[in-house]
Amino acid sequence: MASRRADDHTAGGSSTTHVLGVVLAAGAGRRMGGPKALVGPLASGTSLSGREGSTHPCEHISGVSPLERVCGWVHQAGVDTVLGVIGSHADQVRAVVLARPWLVLVEATAWAEGMGASLRAGLQAASECGADAVLVTLVDLPDVRTPVYRRFLTETRLQTNTLARASFHGTPGHPVLIGRKWWPLVTDSAQGDQGARAVFANHPHVLVECGDLATGRDVDTPQG
Predict the structure, then answer these.
(1) Of 28, 54, 82, 185, whose CB is crowded by the most CB atoms within 10 A?
(2) Angstrom distance (rounded) from CA 139 to CA 178
(3) How far apart are CA 177 and CA 77, in angstroms?
(4) Cα–Cα distance for residue pair 222/105, rounded to 1 Å
(5) From CA 201, how far away is CA 195, in angstroms rounded?
(6) Within a 10 A sphere around the Cβ of 59, how many other Cβ atoms?
(7) Per-10-residue mean pLDDT for the chain, 224 residues long?
């Protein structure tokens, strides 16, 4: 499976790092009114009932759903393959999301446990794909777009031991880059609504400032 490849020139020669994108979009979005993969400020298009702008989770059909938009922005930044982690209303999401050669849907069957289950599912799929590192982001960050992902990838050393995250005017946020070395530790700590927070809190990592490009603020209610 294809992934972003970055040549890392070291004293011992050059190596190629395979980076996959992982977009976490499994949540039910209860405060938003429907599954995060399909509803929210990034949702647009026509509903199954033919009404413009419908956000009912079982009606929404979009030429570009929130999940597709965010995965597309990661892909446009140079990541060849993006894993979209889904859960709530998974069958509906699969029916809506258009097939693309660079987008792979991964179902987190334990999504109701919280973000941790989604991250574990994404890491498991990335491991099966033979990736060396993952760029992880969330589907509910409406102004974190291609320029953020491009800068983040450009200014981060893409290696199996990399641990990095974006910051917005000094406040850490997403995306994050997690090299394969860290996956077992992240998997163990990703429980409930905790993703990789404990790993970043307890281990040195790179911060890439992106506050001039976006706020990095998540939106989980219709009011923003």
Answers:
(1) 82
(2) 18
(3) 14
(4) 25
(5) 11
(6) 16
(7) 39 61 91 82 52 37 78 96 97 93 96 95 97 97 96 94 97 97 96 92 96 92 55
